[in-house]
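Recap from last week: sequence in, structure out.
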Amino acid sequence: MNRRSFLQRGLFGGAVLLLGGGGLSLYPTRRVASPTRPLRVLDDRGFQVIAAVAARVISSPDADPGVLAERIDESLSRLPAESQHDLAGLVGLFENALPGLLLDGRVTPFTRLDAAAQDRALESWRDSRLVVRRSGYHALRRLCFVAYYGDESAWPGIHYKGPPDVKGFSHDDSKAGTPGWIAAQDQAGAP
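Predicted structure tokens:
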């Protein structure tokens, strides 16, 4: 193969990849749930991806993926802007069909997959050789767990009675070790 044909094939292959990849990245996200309030951090596409992940990660029949995605959006609003941006990138990567094609051999965005294929995609991220995919899977999974189990309505299903009632007991140890505290301990005869 001469240099000219090599360059022509390389340019042709690059154009095909660019056009095909661009088309895959524009594949529309399926609407999984509708937010009931304005979103603070997630855009609509990110909300749909989070809701789809929550539907697969939280298997409880009383878990509403839309409500979980709203709780996650609320939690994300407390993060620094850089972390919010990183999570938005992760969610975009999760939904984008081009990385799905290159890494998993699937050309369909996550939200458009059926339940079994979504489970396989999650497993692929969980078991990936790439740290960013494994970390991304665990971050999304933990966000879903916190959103679900952090709400009191989920507690009866796991037989959790809630935090213990300390009946007004509290101990202020903010002055422990100070000269005034040590003197008071000496006067009280504490060891």
